Amino acid sequence: MRKMLKAYFTYPPLIFFISVFLFLIFWCLHTGLLLQHWYLILIAPILQGPFEWVVHKFILHAKVKPHHKFIYRYMKRLHYDHHKEPQKPELLFAQFSASLSIFLGFYLLFALIWGQQLALVPLLGVFAGYLFYEWVHLGHHTVDYDPQTPWGKHMKEFHLWHHYKNENYWWGITMSWFDSVMGTNPLPKKVSRSEGVKTVGI
To answer: Which of 135, 115, 114, 109 is nearest to 21 (CA)?
Structure first.
């Protein structure tokens, strides 16, 4: 656990986003928005399963040809190299630009629906989901970390099947229910081992 805490709280983008998250909590409490519209936070956990599945499958595993040099280099750091070296600490966390684009995208969507100020309340849920995601993903790849709950043990095993069994299944990181809905949560013994688990994007 100490190793995870050190990795998590010494990664500069995470420190920045935690700071923004805490400021948003203060602001939403100060303005009364959080007490009046707390239910909007629940939008994020409802969307998290489908969002993880779609982004992981269609964006992080998108095949980009090497001659598109800038995009290919970005994708290598974003996800390709994480499959190549799943235990490498600097490849476990999302890039700052990728995380920022998620927050901006959701804020713009929420602002169109509820207005600029009220959009900060569901955005709090997005921040909480992101910080939770990064912690859980770090735990999945920390060899000497043993999750303490049945859910944690299941999700770690679930994610490692994606990395070491077959990269075409088990897309969820913090939850597996959407994989079950989409038919990408087969019994591991019924899935053949893929030769492409370390060469995503190639």
So the answer is: 135
Q: What are phi and psi of 59, to 5 degrees?
A: -110, -55
Gyration radius (Cα) of the chain, Å: 18
Asked if 155 and 173 count as a contact pair (C-beta separation under 8 A), the reply is yes
Q: Is 32 exposed, middle or buried (0-12, 13-18, 19+ CB in 10 A)?
A: exposed
Is the CB of residue 190 less than 8 Å from the CB of residue 170?
A: no
CA distances from 155 to 9, 68, 165, 166 (A): 22, 34, 15, 15
Instruction: List Cβ neighbours of 120 (8 Å cut-off, separation of 6 or more).
Output: 24, 27, 28, 33, 107
For residues 102 and 130, the answer to whether their CB atoms sit within 8 Å is: yes
Buried b (16+ CB within 10 A) or exposed e, 159-170: bebbbebbbebb
pLDDT tens digit sequence for 113-169 = 999 999 999 999 999 999 999 999 999 999 889 999 999 999 999 999 999 999 999
From the list 40, 19, 22, 25, the residue with the least C-alpha distance to 118 is: 40
**pTM metric for this prediction:** 0.94
Report the greatest alpha carbon distance in the chain. 54
